[in-house]
Every structure is written in structure tokens, then in C-alpha cells.
Design goal:
globular; 5-stranded antiparallel sheet; disordered C terminus; Uridine Diphospho-n-acetylenolpyruvylglucosamine Reductase, domain 2; 485 residues; 35% helix; Uridine Diphospho-n-acetylenolpyruvylglucosamine Reductase, domain 3; binds zinc ion; 7-stranded antiparallel sheet
Length: 485
Amino acid sequence: FGSLATKVERNPSFSSLNSDDLSYFKGVLGEKNVVQDEDRLETANIDWMHKYKGFSKLLLLPRNTEEVSKILEYCNSRRLAVVPQGGNTGLVGGSVPVFDEVIINVGSMNKIIAFDKVSGILVCEAGCILENLISYLDNQGFVMPLDLGAKGSCQIGGNVSTNAGGLRFVRYGSLHGNVLGLEAVLANGDVLDMLGTLRKDNTGYDLKHLFIGSEGSLGIVTKVSILTPPKLSSVNIAFLACEDYLSCQKLLSEAKRKLGEILSAFEFLDSHAMDLVLNHLEGVRNPLSSAVHNFYLLIETTGSDESYDKEKLEAFLLHSMESGLISDGVLAQDINQASSFWRIREGVPEALMRAGPVYKYDLSLPVEKMYSLVEEMRARLGQSANVVGYGHLGDGNLHLNVSAPRYDDTILAQIEPYVYEWTSKHRGSISAEHGLGLMKANEIFYSKSHGTVQLMASIKKLLDPNGILNPYKVLPSLPPLLQLS
Ligand code: FAD
Ligand code: MLT
Ligand code: ZN
């Protein structure tokens, strides 16, 4: 645990909890929403990867915005540091305390407030679980523009706060486009109502964007409004094999050109990722009968005309087969087969977890350069670790994971800063979709200029002058650059 946590020191300006604090919280939230139970705290103190561990003694479960406001106002006046937590599925150590921060989880705020069937605009509380929103919308004949493997646990507030990307990004784009409004509570308890439901609104600075992707460092998101596209009748999924990375890349260009408006996912995994899934997840098998391949792709199309869409996809696949870009492939024949294809791709993080300690990197890189990094890392690490590449190829987002027998500083020194320097040299981003959290707060300069980070720190100081919201995360702790008074 927490080799990273030892790199930061507890900010001495923060207070420690006392019995008056507990009485206050119980008065506002009621006894049962002030959680001190050791088992529940153990779960809330540890992240999904079991890599980061904090030592919080308190988990607060507010039921409405007013309660969030009251507890934040109190924490701010007492200088009690807090960590907003959603489904705790974050992958950069942002959702768990580093020391004794109070954990605030809005999971009880899980109501759908309104759904407009004409515009497809959904307004809901931030604690709604993503999968529940997906099912709700499905019943209404709409889809969530966001889908990801952690959907069963993650909350929409957590998704918005991390600006999660996921599996449908290639079609519907970023939450910066799909979130139309939100409500957030600032550190001092002020409630900012930006819960607009308009597609267009150019009345000055669009401040909601500050909260999308700020990882709980500027406020607690309590409500969101999201634009959701209609559910279309024809969905097709192909599971394909390519023998080299250049073919994957060419296939992506072809898919964008030939499938055009119906393309809704373009995901890839290499043979190392596939082996992990086959070896560590029960009931998963390779849908391609012919032996082993170097790369696997999952291509999904979504459209409104069954025969036209299928014809289009089949023609694309036939042409790609004839031109030698794909060496094998299968089209899902029914919904069960379709979900078994998705299980393979979505199961990679879980399989990696089961395989043991993992160093995770989530990079935006030019598609043509992306896999060279995986190969270089493989050469650097030799037999000491298993280097795995997968991700959202359609968005230029590589998940480079190093699965190791143990967390080991010698292995880490082989990976970092090499990965970050490589990414920066190729003008990529060191965090495509997972955020910076604790893991990469001090690495921000690989992707952002000093001036930009300085302005970010000024905004943080303005919105959270005492720095109580998710301390040690997102912004670097490096003095003296950020010592703004
Ligand atoms: P948490 O993990 O609890 O928190 C994440 C961050 O948001 C923390 O900094 C926390 O402080 C903050 N936060 C949470 N709730 C709030 C709130 N209400 N207000 C303010 N701040 C808040 N991510 C992707 O982008 N794409 C993927 O495809 C993807 N797939 C994943 C698959 C698996 C199996 C797993 C385990 C994770 C995956 N992730 C992915 C990462 C993660 O699920 C997402 O980042 C998700 O959006 C986090 O939501 P959460 O509710 O679990 O938030
Ligand atoms: C994914 O795309 O599977 C997620 O972002 C999780 C991960 O990177 O492991
Ligand atoms: Zn991802």
C-alpha cells in the first residue's frame, strides 16, 4: 500500500476530528449517516486497485444538497479536510483519503429528478449509479452517452468529476459536451446552481466546465443534467483479429471512412491483455476459433436501419479481410454473444487486478505512435513484468499496464519517468480519462504549462481558500511555484 502516500506529508493546517465535530455531523445528518464502523471505513479507505490506503475515521452520507452544504461549511470553518467519494472506482488514488480526511459520499442522493423525452435531457442527483441511469434511459428509449466497465458501481457525480471517457466516446464525445448543467457545493457551503438544461447558453463564463474533471478539488457535485441520444434499433458488434499494429491503425482509418456515422465503438486489446482475460476471468473464451493473434479489436455500429447497417458493416469486414487488414473475425449473432464480446474488453482491468500488482498508465497519444511505447516498455522491462496494451483506439487513448509480481521500486524506476517523458515528447497527455488524483498530481507539468498550472492553483485558492477539498490531489505539492497568498 501507499508507497505514493509516503511522498506527501499531512498538511499541518488541517484539524483533527473531535467529539464536538461528531455531534455536529450527527445533528445534521442523523446518527446512521455518520459512519464510524471499522469495516465500512476500511472499504472506503482503500481504492479499487488496493493500491492506495488512507486512515479516515469518518464517512458522511448526506441525503440532499442542503446537508452537503451544511457539512462542508462546517468542515471549512473547522479546517477539516475532506475527500468526496463516489463509487470508489477511480484508478489514480483520487477517491480515497491520504491521511485522515473526512469521506463524503453522496450515494444516498440517487433520484432521477426529471427526464424530457422530447429533448432527451436527463436531470438527476449525483449519487445515481451509472448502470441504473443506463437502464432507466433504456426503458425510455434513450441511451447514456457514457458507458464504462465500472458502471455497476460508479456514480454519475464521480463520472462528471473525473470527466470519464469510456466506451462510447468515439461516437458521443466528452462529458464537457454532454453535461448541460450541474449543481455543486463549494468548500464554504455555497451552493452553485448551474443546473441548466439548454443546448445553447452563451451568457458569460461557462463555469460548470471547471467542475467537470476537477476530481473533487473545487466542490462537491450534487446534481447533473445530461443530454442523452435516442436509442437506435440496430446495434452490431464484430470481434476481429489483426496481426500487426499498423493493420489496427489502418482499420481505424477505414472504419471512420466506411462506417462513418454508424461507428459507435472502436476498442483494442493486445494478445497479453487477451491472455489475462482468458486466464483470470471465469466463463470467458476467445470467440475466434483460429489460434492466437497479436491484436484483437471490438468494433460496434449503432444505427437506425437494420439491413442497411448490417450490409455496411459486412461489406467493410469483407473488404478488410480481402485486403489483409484483418486475419479473422466474427459478428455477434445475438445479444448474449454481443455481451460476451464486451465482457472480454471490459474485463481487462479486472483480469489485471486478479493477476496481481499493476502499474497503470492512461495516455493520449497519436494513434500511429501509440503501440511503439508498449513495445519499448516491453524491451525495457524484459522478463521482470508483463507489459499489456489495450484501450480506446478510436480516441487515441492507450491503457499501458505493467503487471508485476510485486510493487517494486526497481520496476517503477524503469517505468517512470520514462513513460511520462515519452508521452510529453510525443505531445500526448499523461491522463487521457482517469484524471491525476494522487498518482499524477506532481506529474502535471508533463502535460500542462507552468502558466496553466499557476492559473489552476489560483482558481483552487479562490474556490477553496483553506484547501480542504481533496488535498494532495490534482495540483502539485511542489513549492514554491504554487505558494500563492
Ligand atoms: P470515485 O472513484 O469515487 O471518485 C473519483 C474522483 O471523483 C475522486 O477524485 C473523487 O474525489 C471525485 N468525486 C467523486 N464523486 C464526486 C462528487 N459527487 N463531487 C465531486 N467529486 C467527486 N474511467 C474512464 O474514464 N473510462 C473507462 O472506460 C473506465 N473504465 C473503468 C473500468 C473499471 C473496471 C474501473 C474500476 C474503473 C474504470 N474507470 C474508467 C475509472 C473510473 O471508473 C471512473 O473514473 C469513474 O468515473 C469514477 O466514478 P466513481 O463514482 O467511482 O468516483
Ligand atoms: C478501461 O478502458 O478498461 C478503463 O479505463 C480501465 C483501465 O484502464 O484499466
Ligand atoms: Zn479506459
